[in-house]
Amino acid sequence: MTQKRTFSAKISVTQEVKLVSDGVKRFGGPGEAPAVRQPCACVVTYAIENKGARARKVGLCVIIDTMIGGNDANPFAVPGKSGMVTTFAEFLSEREIPRYVKALEKRDAAKPGAVAYLTLRLDGLKAPSRFYLTHRPYPPTWDFKVQDLAGDSAVVIYWGPETLKPRAAWKLGYAYGLGVPSARADGGSKPEK
Known about the structure:
By secondary structure, the protein is mainly beta.
């Protein structure tokens, strides 16, 4: 699925959403349907282009409500960080942002229930500039106060604002699903251990 919008007649944003497989064949046991590769993640990319003759300040903010199963206050697991994030977390520079985070249905590390992976770093895509695990901001605004997850967990991903040179373009994005795409934004994917 592809959507395109143009802002101020000079900035064009094209969003593309693609399901990717992790290469694992499922449903192939005796008496079952033939094994097939199932989609495991949704890769969402944005192509932002400055079609104008002068540089422009451009930024993108994506807010995702991470409700899993019946839990709208789900905790998160961050690689390299001990324990679960059950309040909030801020990653204020590109260097601090992990490759992925896990949204967990339950607060039991041994039995987390459903697990969704949010992949923040994919090859060929501009990395986010900051990232928050927070309460879903309402109303959604560019700048908001990061809050305790308290009843409505969400992730907020920012790119910029930065100067986009004339006739230049950025490609950025993320993936969300049951696996972590294999660093490529083109569809290869594998479950993360």
